[in-house]
Write a structure and sequence with these properties.
The structure is a single chain. The protein is mainly α. The chain has a single domain, classed as Growth Hormone, Chain: A (Up-down Bundle), CATH 1.20.1250. Helices cover 73% and strands 0% of the residues. It contains 9 helices and no strands. It has helices at residues 2-12, 23-44, 53-64, 72-96, 100-124, 131-155, 166-174, 180-208, 212-233. α1 (2-12) packs across α8 (180-208) and α5 (100-124) packs antiparallel against α9. The protein is globular, with a radius of gyration of 18 Å.
Length: 245
Protein backbone atom coordinates (compact mmCIF):
# COMPACT_ATOMS: atom_id res chain seq x y z
CA UNK A 1 0.00 0.00 0.00
CA UNK A 2 2.86 2.36 0.84
CA UNK A 3 4.38 1.70 -2.57
CA UNK A 4 1.07 2.52 -4.25
CA UNK A 5 0.74 5.81 -2.35
CA UNK A 6 4.35 6.63 -3.18
CA UNK A 7 3.64 5.92 -6.85
CA UNK A 8 0.74 8.37 -6.80
CA UNK A 9 2.93 10.98 -5.14
CA UNK A 10 5.80 10.64 -7.60
CA UNK A 11 3.37 10.79 -10.53
CA UNK A 12 1.84 14.02 -9.30
CA UNK A 13 5.20 15.45 -8.23
CA UNK A 14 8.07 13.68 -10.01
CA UNK A 15 11.36 13.34 -8.21
CA UNK A 16 14.46 15.21 -9.42
CA UNK A 17 16.13 13.19 -12.14
CA UNK A 18 12.95 11.42 -13.20
CA UNK A 19 13.49 10.41 -16.87
CA UNK A 20 10.14 11.91 -17.78
CA UNK A 21 10.58 15.12 -15.79
CA UNK A 22 7.27 16.98 -15.36
CA UNK A 23 5.51 15.03 -18.11
CA UNK A 24 3.44 12.66 -15.90
CA UNK A 25 1.36 15.40 -14.21
CA UNK A 26 1.11 17.25 -17.52
CA UNK A 27 -0.26 14.11 -19.17
CA UNK A 28 -2.78 13.81 -16.37
CA UNK A 29 -3.90 17.36 -17.14
CA UNK A 30 -4.51 16.36 -20.75
CA UNK A 31 -6.36 13.26 -19.57
CA UNK A 32 -8.77 15.57 -17.75
CA UNK A 33 -9.19 17.52 -20.99
CA UNK A 34 -10.30 14.31 -22.69
CA UNK A 35 -13.04 13.79 -20.13
CA UNK A 36 -14.20 17.39 -20.42
CA UNK A 37 -14.44 17.54 -24.21
CA UNK A 38 -16.01 14.11 -24.64
CA UNK A 39 -18.66 15.04 -22.06
CA UNK A 40 -19.39 18.15 -24.11
CA UNK A 41 -19.46 16.38 -27.46
CA UNK A 42 -21.62 13.47 -26.35
CA UNK A 43 -24.12 15.49 -24.32
CA UNK A 44 -24.31 18.61 -26.49
CA UNK A 45 -23.46 17.43 -30.00
CA UNK A 46 -25.29 14.10 -29.96
CA UNK A 47 -23.91 10.58 -29.93
CA UNK A 48 -20.40 11.44 -31.05
CA UNK A 49 -17.02 11.64 -29.36
CA UNK A 50 -14.20 14.02 -30.27
CA UNK A 51 -11.47 12.12 -28.40
CA UNK A 52 -12.58 8.50 -28.15
CA UNK A 53 -12.33 7.26 -31.72
CA UNK A 54 -12.98 3.64 -30.73
CA UNK A 55 -16.44 4.70 -29.62
CA UNK A 56 -16.98 6.57 -32.88
CA UNK A 57 -16.20 3.49 -34.96
CA UNK A 58 -18.87 1.61 -33.02
CA UNK A 59 -21.29 4.54 -33.37
CA UNK A 60 -20.73 4.54 -37.13
CA UNK A 61 -21.79 0.91 -37.27
CA UNK A 62 -24.92 1.76 -35.27
CA UNK A 63 -25.71 4.67 -37.60
CA UNK A 64 -25.27 2.55 -40.72
CA UNK A 65 -28.02 0.16 -39.62
CA UNK A 66 -30.37 3.02 -38.76
CA UNK A 67 -30.14 3.09 -34.97
CA UNK A 68 -31.82 6.20 -33.61
CA UNK A 69 -29.77 9.10 -32.31
CA UNK A 70 -26.63 8.33 -34.31
CA UNK A 71 -25.42 10.39 -37.26
CA UNK A 72 -23.18 9.01 -40.01
CA UNK A 73 -22.13 12.52 -40.97
CA UNK A 74 -21.27 13.59 -37.42
CA UNK A 75 -19.17 10.50 -36.79
CA UNK A 76 -17.33 10.83 -40.09
CA UNK A 77 -16.60 14.50 -39.44
CA UNK A 78 -15.24 13.61 -35.99
CA UNK A 79 -13.05 10.85 -37.40
CA UNK A 80 -11.79 13.08 -40.21
CA UNK A 81 -11.10 16.05 -37.93
CA UNK A 82 -9.26 13.83 -35.45
CA UNK A 83 -7.12 12.37 -38.25
CA UNK A 84 -6.37 15.87 -39.53
CA UNK A 85 -5.32 17.03 -36.08
CA UNK A 86 -3.21 13.92 -35.60
CA UNK A 87 -1.55 14.58 -38.95
CA UNK A 88 -0.68 18.13 -37.93
CA UNK A 89 0.55 16.83 -34.59
CA UNK A 90 2.68 14.23 -36.35
CA UNK A 91 4.28 16.96 -38.45
CA UNK A 92 5.09 18.91 -35.28
CA UNK A 93 6.54 15.76 -33.70
CA UNK A 94 8.89 15.33 -36.64
CA UNK A 95 9.87 18.99 -36.55
CA UNK A 96 10.61 18.64 -32.84
CA UNK A 97 13.43 16.21 -33.68
CA UNK A 98 13.12 14.25 -30.47
CA UNK A 99 12.90 17.31 -28.19
CA UNK A 100 9.95 16.28 -26.06
CA UNK A 101 9.28 19.73 -24.62
CA UNK A 102 9.09 21.32 -28.07
CA UNK A 103 6.77 18.56 -29.23
CA UNK A 104 4.36 18.91 -26.32
CA UNK A 105 4.44 22.71 -26.30
CA UNK A 106 3.79 22.91 -30.05
CA UNK A 107 1.02 20.32 -30.13
CA UNK A 108 -0.76 21.81 -27.14
CA UNK A 109 -0.42 25.30 -28.63
CA UNK A 110 -2.29 24.10 -31.71
CA UNK A 111 -4.77 22.35 -29.46
CA UNK A 112 -5.30 25.53 -27.43
CA UNK A 113 -6.12 27.55 -30.55
CA UNK A 114 -8.66 24.97 -31.67
CA UNK A 115 -10.30 24.70 -28.25
CA UNK A 116 -10.39 28.50 -28.08
CA UNK A 117 -12.26 28.52 -31.39
CA UNK A 118 -14.75 26.05 -29.90
CA UNK A 119 -15.15 28.25 -26.81
CA UNK A 120 -15.95 31.30 -28.95
CA UNK A 121 -18.36 29.38 -31.18
CA UNK A 122 -20.05 27.82 -28.16
CA UNK A 123 -20.33 31.15 -26.34
CA UNK A 124 -21.95 32.79 -29.37
CA UNK A 125 -24.50 29.99 -29.76
CA UNK A 126 -25.84 29.14 -26.32
CA UNK A 127 -29.23 27.94 -27.53
CA UNK A 128 -30.06 25.04 -29.79
CA UNK A 129 -27.06 24.01 -31.87
CA UNK A 130 -27.67 24.50 -35.59
CA UNK A 131 -26.05 22.11 -38.12
CA UNK A 132 -23.24 24.54 -39.13
CA UNK A 133 -22.36 25.19 -35.48
CA UNK A 134 -22.68 21.49 -34.69
CA UNK A 135 -20.12 20.49 -37.32
CA UNK A 136 -17.84 23.44 -36.56
CA UNK A 137 -17.60 22.35 -32.93
CA UNK A 138 -16.98 18.72 -33.85
CA UNK A 139 -14.27 19.76 -36.31
CA UNK A 140 -12.45 22.10 -33.94
CA UNK A 141 -12.57 19.75 -30.96
CA UNK A 142 -11.81 16.62 -32.98
CA UNK A 143 -8.74 18.22 -34.53
CA UNK A 144 -7.64 19.48 -31.11
CA UNK A 145 -7.79 15.99 -29.65
CA UNK A 146 -5.98 14.54 -32.65
CA UNK A 147 -3.09 16.90 -31.96
CA UNK A 148 -3.09 15.93 -28.28
CA UNK A 149 -2.98 12.24 -29.08
CA UNK A 150 -0.12 12.67 -31.56
CA UNK A 151 1.90 14.34 -28.81
CA UNK A 152 1.02 11.71 -26.20
CA UNK A 153 2.00 8.92 -28.58
CA UNK A 154 5.37 10.53 -29.32
CA UNK A 155 6.16 11.30 -25.69
CA UNK A 156 5.45 7.71 -24.64
CA UNK A 157 5.04 8.34 -20.92
CA UNK A 158 4.23 4.88 -19.49
CA UNK A 159 0.56 4.30 -18.55
CA UNK A 160 -0.47 7.87 -19.44
CA UNK A 161 -1.91 7.86 -22.95
CA UNK A 162 -4.42 10.66 -22.08
CA UNK A 163 -7.26 8.97 -23.97
CA UNK A 164 -7.23 5.15 -24.22
CA UNK A 165 -8.34 3.54 -20.97
CA UNK A 166 -9.23 0.04 -22.12
CA UNK A 167 -5.64 -1.18 -21.87
CA UNK A 168 -5.22 0.82 -18.67
CA UNK A 169 -8.05 -1.08 -17.00
CA UNK A 170 -6.75 -4.36 -18.43
CA UNK A 171 -3.32 -3.68 -16.99
CA UNK A 172 -4.74 -2.85 -13.58
CA UNK A 173 -6.64 -6.11 -13.49
CA UNK A 174 -4.18 -8.45 -15.21
CA UNK A 175 -0.67 -7.32 -14.32
CA UNK A 176 1.05 -8.47 -11.10
CA UNK A 177 2.21 -5.93 -8.52
CA UNK A 178 5.19 -7.86 -7.21
CA UNK A 179 7.81 -5.18 -7.81
CA UNK A 180 8.05 -1.47 -6.92
CA UNK A 181 7.94 -0.59 -10.62
CA UNK A 182 4.73 -2.60 -11.13
CA UNK A 183 3.15 -0.93 -8.10
CA UNK A 184 4.09 2.51 -9.41
CA UNK A 185 2.57 1.59 -12.77
CA UNK A 186 -0.67 0.59 -11.07
CA UNK A 187 -0.70 3.94 -9.27
CA UNK A 188 -0.32 5.87 -12.54
CA UNK A 189 -3.07 3.84 -14.16
CA UNK A 190 -5.41 4.45 -11.25
CA UNK A 191 -4.72 8.17 -11.38
CA UNK A 192 -5.40 8.20 -15.11
CA UNK A 193 -8.80 6.57 -14.57
CA UNK A 194 -9.73 8.91 -11.75
CA UNK A 195 -8.66 12.03 -13.64
CA UNK A 196 -10.59 11.01 -16.76
CA UNK A 197 -13.64 10.37 -14.59
CA UNK A 198 -13.26 13.72 -12.86
CA UNK A 199 -12.99 15.56 -16.16
CA UNK A 200 -16.09 13.85 -17.51
CA UNK A 201 -17.94 14.50 -14.25
CA UNK A 202 -17.14 18.22 -14.29
CA UNK A 203 -17.97 18.48 -17.98
CA UNK A 204 -21.28 16.69 -17.58
CA UNK A 205 -22.18 18.85 -14.57
CA UNK A 206 -21.53 22.01 -16.60
CA UNK A 207 -23.77 20.79 -19.42
CA UNK A 208 -26.56 19.48 -17.20
CA UNK A 209 -26.69 22.72 -15.21
CA UNK A 210 -26.79 24.94 -18.30
CA UNK A 211 -23.19 26.10 -18.22
CA UNK A 212 -21.89 24.12 -21.16
CA UNK A 213 -19.44 26.80 -22.34
CA UNK A 214 -17.64 26.57 -19.01
CA UNK A 215 -16.87 22.95 -19.84
CA UNK A 216 -14.82 24.09 -22.82
CA UNK A 217 -13.32 27.00 -20.87
CA UNK A 218 -12.03 24.52 -18.28
CA UNK A 219 -10.50 22.40 -21.06
CA UNK A 220 -8.86 25.49 -22.58
CA UNK A 221 -7.37 26.56 -19.23
CA UNK A 222 -5.86 23.09 -18.77
CA UNK A 223 -4.37 22.98 -22.27
CA UNK A 224 -2.86 26.46 -21.96
CA UNK A 225 -1.46 25.53 -18.55
CA UNK A 226 0.16 22.39 -19.94
CA UNK A 227 1.67 24.26 -22.89
CA UNK A 228 2.99 27.10 -20.75
CA UNK A 229 4.35 24.82 -18.02
CA UNK A 230 6.13 22.70 -20.62
CA UNK A 231 7.94 25.73 -22.03
CA UNK A 232 8.95 26.94 -18.58
CA UNK A 233 10.10 23.50 -17.40
CA UNK A 234 12.29 23.01 -20.48
CA UNK A 235 14.53 25.96 -19.63
CA UNK A 236 18.16 24.96 -19.50
CA UNK A 237 17.56 21.89 -21.69
CA UNK A 238 17.13 19.29 -18.90
CA UNK A 239 17.74 15.60 -19.59
CA UNK A 240 14.07 14.61 -19.73
CA UNK A 241 13.42 16.61 -22.90
CA UNK A 242 15.44 14.09 -24.90
CA UNK A 243 14.77 10.96 -22.87
CA UNK A 244 12.16 8.39 -23.87
CA UNK A 245 13.28 5.78 -21.34
Amino acid sequence: MNGFVTGIGTTLRPRPGDPHGPLPPLMLGLTAVTGLVDAFSYLVLGHVFVANMTGNVVFLAFALVGARGFSIAAVLVALGAFALGAGVGGHLVRRGRGHRARVLAACTAVQAVLVAVAVVVGALHTGAVSPPVHYALITALGAAMGSQNAAARALAVPDLTTTVLTLTITGLAADPRDTPRATASAARRTLSLLVMFAGALVGAACVVHGQRTWDLVAALVLVVTVSTTTRLAAGGDPAWVRSAA
